[in-house]
Design brief:
single chain, 343 residues, alpha/beta, seven-stranded parallel β-sheet, two-stranded parallel ribbon, 11 helices, 36% helix
């Protein structure tokens, strides 16, 4: 596989006991691999919720680099027994990545989204407070909390104004972490992630963002359909840069803080599709189609992330350019074709 970047050990990871919620999914599993490479002991909690992309194969390691990962299949808000509490007991860091990310699914089943992104996190924070109140927690939120904005790029002073239930629920989960930091002294941080792509992302669902959909169609030589005229802009963040931000956020200055995490460069959807086609070998057509009603009513328009704050306070910045990241991503999926057929 083409390598995008090499990792160091990161702050305080060697020998640390790290819990990754959602650790069998896209971002979580990439984080698991980095933590293992850094010498951490890793425990995973994952509910394996259908359609979310969690798969045990995501944490498979080469035989010559095999490290045991303790895996608990459970929702983080599980209340029967104390399996979640037992797993987080004694942990040094919790990376709380679990959640539902589909905007359209949040509108078709809003109560489920609220349970997964808010209520489960409330119960999980209660478990943390009871079992391991000294643990470090880094939570993943989303740029979707901002909704439609008046000016770009968007920094953390922009008011949250979500346009769908997913944005509401993720904002609630984020604010719960901040409440527990302020009221109970839990060492929590939340990261508002931009559009993330890269290895180990579920490709076979149309509801998890436009990037995996475009990548799937390009790999299969199928047409890429863009809603509208393709002029809307997004910044795209390789998962390696997300992992770097998660690790950076374990440092002391990040406690009680909420940070934007996005790329400094934004592109139109038409440009992004073109880069994806090029990375896949150029055998795919791109066409523009009318907006479906269920998508258009929750569309946020153009978005570009201002990540100045996390750069100034934690020293993080994105390192992977879109063209390089897409080339490495395509190489990964060609070497692991099961992602194109797995349900």
């Amino acid at each position: 596989m083409t390598q995008v970047r090499q990792w160091g050990d990161g702050p305080g990871l060697a020998g640390a006991i790290c819990v990754v919620t959602g650790g069998l999914g896209f971002i979580g599993s990439n984080l698991v691999h980095h933590l293992l490479d850094a010498g951490a002991a890793v425990r995973v909690i994952d509910g394996l919720v259908p359609s979310h992309g969690g798969d045990r194969r995501n944490v498979d390691r080469p035989d010559d680099n095999r490290v045991d990962v303790e895996v608990l299949i459970a929702r983080i808000g599980e209340t029967s027994g104390d399996r979640v509490g037992e797993l987080i007991d004694g942990a040094d860091v919790i990376f709380n990545v679990a959640g539902q990310v589909s905007h359209t699914a949040s509108m078709s089943d809003p109560l489920n989204d609220l349970h997964l992104n808010a209520l489960d996190h409330a119960q999980f924070l209660e478990t943390v407070r009871r079992v391991n109140p000294a643990v470090r927690i880094v939570h993943t939120s989303t740029r979707q909390v901002y909704g439609r904005v008046a000016s770009l790029p968007v920094d953390e002073t922009t008011a949250a104004n979500p346009v769908d239930v997913n944005g509401v629920a993720k904002l609630a989960g984020e604010q719960l972490h901040m409440v527990y930091a302020q009221a109970y002294g839990l060492a929590a941080t939340s990261l508002r992630l931009s559009n993330v792509y890269g290895p180990r992302q579920r490709l076979t669902s149309d509801g998890l963002g436009f990037l995996p959909v475009f990548i799937r169609h390009a790999l299969l030589g199928e047409k890429i359909e863009i809603f509208g005229d393709g002029a809307q802009r997004r910044d795209c963040l390789h998962v390696d840069d997300v992992v770097a931000a998660l690790v950076a956020a374990t440092s002391d200055p990040a406690v009680g803080r909420v940070y934007n995490v996005g790329h400094r460069c934004d592109h139109s959807l038409a440009e992004i599709a073109g880069h994806i086609v090029d990375a896949a070998g150029g055998a795919t057509d791109v066409r523009f189609v009318p907006w479906p009603g269920d998508h258009q009513r929750i569309d946020i328009g153009s978005f570009a992330t201002d990540s100045t704050l996390i750069g100034a306070e934690l020293g993080w910045k994105p390192e992977v350019e879109l063209e390089d990241g897409l080339t490495a991503t395509m190489a990964f999926y060609r070497e692991h074709p099961w992602y194109l057929s797995s349900t």
